[in-house]
Write a structure and sequence with these properties.
Elements lengths: L21 H4 L1 E2 L4 H9 L3 H9 L1 E2 L3 H7 L1 H12 L11 E3 L17 H4 L16 H28 L12 H13 L10
Antiparallel strand pairs: 1-3, 2-3
The structure holds iron/sulfur cluster (SF4) (2 copies).
Length: 193
Amino acid sequence: MTGRNQSNPGEFPQYLCKMCGKCCKSITTEHTYEELEEMTKNGSESARVFIDVFRPYPGLKEAKKHVPDQVEQILDELGNKEGFDISKVTFYYCPHHSEENQCGIYENRPECCRRAPNNPWSCMPPGCGFEGWQFEEREKIKREIRKLKEYLIALQAVAEDGMVPGKDITVDELRKIIDKKISRWEKYGSRLW
Ligand code: SF4
Ligand code: SF4
């Protein structure tokens, strides 16, 4: 988001941000505004910070009027996701983003701005400097999941007595642990990787 930080190797590559400010004008979450309010009531700090900082556009029409290409691209990406329901999509803007493309609370900007995109699958506006990084990160996760699946298949073939060779754990228990890891990425398609 608007403002530049230097990054050390291994850290989040903040330097990739082009400071275009597009994400300050068109952000959406996987939860509706009402869900975010509910989550806030239930103690979610990230939901509280989000609704504290961002303001919802009154509707998709309004959002498209302000940031048409961004809304179109994000809707296109979301449309490919399982269970996508356009009636649940809300776009937000940040009131701290100035006409001069500056962040009015740069020193105190929330964590979600310091580390945007927060997830390799986050829908970012067209031309975002993190496009390549997101692609690489997604591929890295897919490779890890494939490795885990291959490991399970290989294990099944050698574990005659149901125990993992050399370990005090059954194949079944290990499968459950690995399945849990894979299911973390299920909404992004991990079952098919
Ligand atoms: S859209 Fe991407 S490049 Fe532009 S400010 Fe946001 S994070 Fe930075
Ligand atoms: S707080 Fe600053 S960096 Fe975050 S969305 Fe608003 S203007 Fe952008």
